[in-house]
């Protein structure tokens, strides 16, 4: 019975797997476009500093840089665990 | 007004040089005065694909460093009138290429030519950045394969930020997508990204689609750009691509599985 199920199971086409993976990675790349090169390092180091005081997850930190006319705003969002 | 077009991709081995050679040949065959420049300093190959490797005397770096005049370094194509090749240097280090030097050469070429095709090296280092820096348009060569598509997206990001047009804030570089080594059979069996997938992921206008073809290797073996092989699928696909660059609207070809006729079935027809 299991063998039959195995044979009947529609194998996910590799091209659609490729497409899904690409859509995710490309969206991620685009979100970083135009950012200064130091941003990933800055993000990591900020996370390290915060971790000296509170334990937070890797994905608990969100950092973004928005430029307006004559200034740039660095926005940092950290989700802290409930104490 | 000359159009400066960079042929780029990020990833290596996807067909940049083949495409640069085929497209510049196609443009010259339509009577457009065209020069194709190899920016791959240290690893030149455009001369081989164009079949003029034994006629290289001076190169791009010689011209930039003032050791040769531009006209001394330009190689006239044997087969097509109006087509010239400016080879890359084989020996010097990449730092020999300077932005001012490239700017000066392009300014001079603009006076004489209708099309200036810049064949970019792989990667995103100096040679690749200089090849794209002064471009008006970019042809991003992409294979239906994950690493190529991802690298193409990186290149699109650089085109939109690290070029003269981006820095000056005028009209952005016009981006074109050229899909190469497309295999409709594998697309049908679900093992290759479809052209719609690639277009959707990169969201760039599709300039052309080149099927995977035996004609491409045959052409490079002989040093004759595949556009000259007018009976081949790849030759015709490049020819269509050139027509679209010149503003014609043509339907896509070679993106669907060709039905084999009885004869080719019997005698084992191969992709031309």
From TrEMBL, chain A:
Protein name: Cell division topological specificity factor
HAMAP family: MinE
Phylogenetic placement of the source organism: Bacteria, Pseudomonadati, Pseudomonadota, Gammaproteobacteria, Oceanospirillales
Protein keywords: Cell cycle, Cell division
GO molecular function: identical protein binding
Pfam families cross-referenced by the UniProt entry: MinE
One GO biological process term: cell division
Free-text function comment from the UniProt entry: Prevents the cell division inhibition by proteins MinC and MinD at internal division sites while permitting inhibition at polar sites. This ensures cell division at the proper site by restricting the formation of a division septum at the midpoint of the long axis of the cell.
UniProt keyword Cell cycle present: yes
Signal peptide: none
Presence of the UniProt keyword Ligase in the record: no
Family: Belongs to the MinE family.
UniProtKB/TrEMBL annotation, chain B:
UniProt keyword list: ATP-binding, Cell cycle, Cell division, Nucleotide-binding, Septation
Molecular function in Gene Ontology: ATP binding; ATP hydrolysis activity
Parts forming coiled coils: none
Gene label: minD
Domain of life the protein comes from: Bacteria
Alphabetical GO biological process terms: division septum assembly; negative regulation of cell division
Role summary: ATPase required for the correct placement of the division site. Cell division inhibitors MinC and MinD act in concert to form an inhibitor capable of blocking formation of the polar Z ring septums. Rapidly oscillates between the poles of the cell to destabilize FtsZ filaments that have formed before they mature into polar Z rings.
Name the UniProt record assigns to this protein: Septum site-determining protein MinD
Organism: Vreelandella nanhaiensis
Quaternary state and interactors: Interacts with MinC and FtsZ.
GO CC, one annotated term: cytosol
């Amino acid at each position: 019975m299991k063998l039959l199920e195995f044979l009947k199971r529609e194998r996910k086409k590799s091209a659609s797997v490729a497409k899904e993976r690409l859509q995710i990675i490309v969206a991620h790349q685009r979100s970083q476009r135009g950012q200064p090169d130091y941003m990933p390092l800055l993000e990591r180091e900020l996370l390290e500093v915060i971790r000296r005081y509170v334990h937070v997850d890797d994905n608990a930190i969100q950092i973004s840089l928005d430029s307006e006319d004559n200034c740039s705003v660095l926005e940092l969002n950290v989700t802290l665990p409930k104490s | 007004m000359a159009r400066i077009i960079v042929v780029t991709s990020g990833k290596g081995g996807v067909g940049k040089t083949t495409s640069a050679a085929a497209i510049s040949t196609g443009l010259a065959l339509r009577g457009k005065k065209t020069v194709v420049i190899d920016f791959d300093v240290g690893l030149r190959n455009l001369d081989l694909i164009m079949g003029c490797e034994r006629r290289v005397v001076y190169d791009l770096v010689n011209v930039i460093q003032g050791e040769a005049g531009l006209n001394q370094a330009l190689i006239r194509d044997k087969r097509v009138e109006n087509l010239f090749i400016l080879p890359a240097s084989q020996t010097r280090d990449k730092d020999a290429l300077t932005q001012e030097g490239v700017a000066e050469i392009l300014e001079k070429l603009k006076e004489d030519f209708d099309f200036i095709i810049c064949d970019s090296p792989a990667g995103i280092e100096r040679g690749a950045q200089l090849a794209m820096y002064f471009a008006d348009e970019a042809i991003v060569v992409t294979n239906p394969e994950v690493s190529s598509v991802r690298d193409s997206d990186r290149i699109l990001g650089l085109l939109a930020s690290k070029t003269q047009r981006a820095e000056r804030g005028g009209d952005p570089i016009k981006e074109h997508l050229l899909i190469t080594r497309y295999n409709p059979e594998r697309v049908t069996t679900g093992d290759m990204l479809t052209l719609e997938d690639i277009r959707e992921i990169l969201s760039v206008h599709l300039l052309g689609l080149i099927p995977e073809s035996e004609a491409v290797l045959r052409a490079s073996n002989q040093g004759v750009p595949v556009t000259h092989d007018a009976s081949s699928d790849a030759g015709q696909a490049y020819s269509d691509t050139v027509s679209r660059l010149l503003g014609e609207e043509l339907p896509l070809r070679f993106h669907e599985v060709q039905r084999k006729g009885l004869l080719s079935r019997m005698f084992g027809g191969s992709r031309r």
